[in-house]
């Protein structure tokens, strides 16, 4: 008899949002600052939460900010030098499969039976994420397809908003 057990190790929302937002920024930043509101709208993320994450990403020198009416954010490094693990680390996220956060006190103050297994898994995840750059993600066809779909939806929503605003102005001036 075969028993299948599904094991999940979840990256928290903070790490997922940071990676998603950085990928969006990298896809759209062409030496022109990108407004955080654009990223939030395209990705369906909270603007205030992104603001907090981008503060941490800026402290980690992964992004740079531009002030003024056409301000926003840009990349501080080339995409091939921004690794996924750097983003996770910048937002104070960790990848740890152990129950004890690597302290070896998982069972009544001592190391548990499977501590080395979970430590090895954490190490493998670290190695994997530290070897994947934003540039590598951008080059993936599936990422480009999703980005194109999101861009079309974003532009459709912008046109719809502008149309509704114009109609409101026309009605209110009569």
Count, helices = 7
Rg, nearest Å: 21 Å
CATH classification class of the domain at 13-94 and 133-141: Mainly Alpha
Fraction of residues in β-strands = under 5%
CATH architecture heading of the domain at 13-94 and 133-141: Orthogonal Bundle
Shape: elongated
Supply the helix-strand structural class.
mainly alpha
Overall average pLDDT = 87
Portion in helices: 55-70%
CATH superfamily of the domain at 13-94 and 133-141: Winged helix-like DNA-binding domain superfamily/Winged helix DNA-binding domain
| Unreliable stretches covering 5 or more consecutive residues | 4-8, 169-174
Q: Count the strands?
A: 2
Q: What strand line-up does the widest sheet have? A: 1-2
- For the termini, the CA-CA separation is 76 Å
Q: What is the makeup of the main sheet?
A: 2 strands, antiparallel
> H/E element string?
HHHEEHHHH
Under CATH, the topology of the domain at 13-94 and 133-141 can be stated as Arc Repressor Mutant, subunit A
């Amino acid at each position: 008899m075969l028993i299948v057990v599904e094991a999940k190790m979840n990256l928290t929302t903070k790490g997922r949002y940071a990676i998603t937002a950085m990928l969006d920024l990298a896809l759209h930043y062409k030496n022109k600052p990108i407004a955080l509101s654009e990223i939030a709208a395209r990705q369906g993320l909270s603007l205030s939460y992104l603001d907090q994450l981008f503060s941490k990403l800026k402290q980690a020198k992964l992004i740079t900010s531009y002030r003024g009416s056409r301000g926003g954010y840009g990349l501080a490094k080339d995409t091939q030098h921004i690794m996924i693990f750097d983003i996770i680390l910048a937002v104070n996220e960790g990848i740890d499969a152990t129950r004890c956060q690597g302290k070896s006190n998982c069972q009544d103050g001592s190391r548990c039976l499977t501590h080395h297994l979970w430590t090895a898994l954490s190490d493998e995840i670290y190695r994997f994420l530290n070897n994947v750059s934003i540039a590598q993600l951008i080059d993936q066809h599936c990422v480009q397809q999703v980005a194109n779909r999101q861009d079309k939806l974003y532009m459709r929503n912008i046109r719809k908003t502008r149309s509704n605003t114009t109609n409101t102005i026309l009605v209110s001036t009569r």
